[in-house]
Amino acid sequence: MIENSVKTQFFDKTSTDRNLIKNTFLTTTQDAFNEAIKGNKTKLFSIIDEISSLENSDEDSNEQLILWMETFSKIVSNFTKEFQDLVGIILDINWVIRSSEFAIVYSQFLENLVSAHAFYMFPVAERLINLLCWKKPFENPRATLVSDPSVTPKIACDRVHAVLKRIISLIPSGPSFLITPIAEAFPDKFQDIKYQLWYLRNILKMIEYIPVLKEPIMSLIVEKIIKIDVEIQVEIEDMDDQDITDLQNLVFKMEKNDIDESSVEENSLNEKTQQDLINFDEINDNDENGFLFEELTEEDSNVKGMVEKLDGMLNILFDYISKLNAEERDDMFEILMEIFQKTILPTHNSRYTQFLVFYLCSYSPVYVNNFICLLAQKVLTPSVPSVIQVASAAYISSFVARAKYMEIAPVKTILQLLTRFALNYVEQNEHRLGSVLNPKQYMIFYSVVEAIILIFLYRWRTLMENDGNGISYGQLPPEMKGLDRIIQSRFNPLVVCNRGLVEEFAKLTHNLEIMYCYSIFENNNYSFIKNKRHKKASKKPKIKMHDLKGSDEEDDDENNDDSDDSEEEDDDEYDDDNDSEEEEENELPETLLPFEPYQLKNSCHFIENIYQNWTPITGDEDDSDIESDVTDNILAMSISPMAPPAFNWINNYPA
Predict the structure, then answer these.
(1) pLDDT by residue (tens digit) across 273-328?
(2) Dist CA 543 CA 647 (whole Å)
(3) In a domain, 258, yes or no
(4) DSSP string, 164-216
(5) Does residue 17 fall inside a structural domain?
(6) Within a domain: residue 225?
(7) pTM greater than 0.85
(8) What distance in Å separates the CA atoms of residue 18 and residue 480, rounded to the nearest whole number?
(9) Residue 405 belongs to a domain
(10) Residue 458 carries which DSSP code?
(11) 131-146 burial code (b ≥16 CB/10 A, e <16)
(12) pLDDT value at position 525?
């Protein structure tokens, strides 16, 4: 240990022989290392105690620590594995909040240490990455005693990034090992929003100087986001009707607000301004709707918090994508396609995460074509698992219907491809049908038919245009040639497919004088379909749905339908008791429309201008009735806050 008199002499402002004191520190430290190698670690432990006491001292220890760091940098080759205890104490020094002079000396030591001993790279990188978490360096109660008042959280993180950038360049093996500490430091989904967004911005910044980590970091981010996304849907499914209504009015009626980063920098050390990183507007205590955050249950408050996190994280990612140049966007598209196949496509109940792909595709028709081709390949490849085929068909239909930026040529191409697939499917498999139809065996066929119908409902105006001379009545567009054969096949898709979707198709084709479909599904001839779930779906759903209006004739017979409902309910109770196991066995998997209306208020501005909303049909008939019915039915198929978050697009509809 250095004699106190020597240290006093060194730090005496009147002393002029600082080099002598530095040499004394160097000699004493080198002697401690030599003794430790021989087995006597007394002097080494004294140095460890000295460093530890300086770090925890209430007095200004900045200059003394600078002297130690300069000394250690000169003998860094001596820091072999036998001296890991000393290295651990040094790495625990809260250096990023101290003066710039100390930060420079300390960062130089880290660079020298990693350059001399590669095995210290992981612990050094792990400590550095942990410092990128929100206010991590400022959590120590003694931080205010040793910190430089001019050091803000952003300055602290900038120092960390600068050191990381330099030490990564010293490792020839590459920085792939960093993804483990990056993943471990990622805030838990239940942590406060400021932790999530602060860390997300910092790891995105790492991509700028470590581009090889772009794919693993983006993959990690999407995995974290989709977990929050799905968790929200699961929580909402377990709520009752009133809780859902209250939550929707609370969360989805919030006004847009932006991150004020300058405010964060000015007030980052003030405990009263912890929310400045994401300055969500406070809800007025006198809100006329009465939806106060404090009035929600703990479960509902948890959902609200997760919605805000999801909104903020997607807002950051959309902004990040918007600032990429053309070459960077090309790389990002390739990365997102891999992530989409690995993480997003197989995930059930994802509601918003997939809009990352939707937004990126808006930058180039090449992205659109590649994305659609990827999905089409999965739909048409028999070896692909049926669940993925069905999900891919849902993504195709929802994307083509909603992507305002998608040109009509690829729309016609995919529509023709899907129609040919469905027609060939009928020709090759219709003869195999017996007296009873089990829809589960042919779910890819029904999902493709529903995709065709949904695309036509959204794109019929451009598909039916006759060389600029208005709408061509009386026949389907040539890309849908053979649809009449598909509809009239023994598969009877208009009976099996989603009732609301089929009714809108019937109204539209009738209005366009193409075909009359009402007779097919109005016969209610479900007896040939094994375990048809229209009865079970007629029971009151757990989450209230918008009513699906049927045909005009069905409205006229409303009283008769009501009288029949009681009998059906009695039958349902009997059927559920006796056939529940068999129904579950033959139940079609639940499929959601992936790109339904985007309701996250802070990030929606990235989507709203490229998103195609539903436009009601018009014609010579009673337009008001038609528009009302069509709009109600299309909204009923949505999984937005206006409708249930987990609507079964294939087979779960009210009778």
Answers:
(1) 333 333 333 323 333 333 333 445 555 668 888 999 999 999 999 999 999 999 99
(2) 10
(3) no
(4) HHHHHTT-TT-SGGGHHHHHHHSPPTTS-HHHHHHHHHHHHHHHHH-GGGHHH
(5) yes
(6) no
(7) no
(8) 88
(9) yes
(10) H
(11) bbbbbbbbeeeebeeb
(12) 54
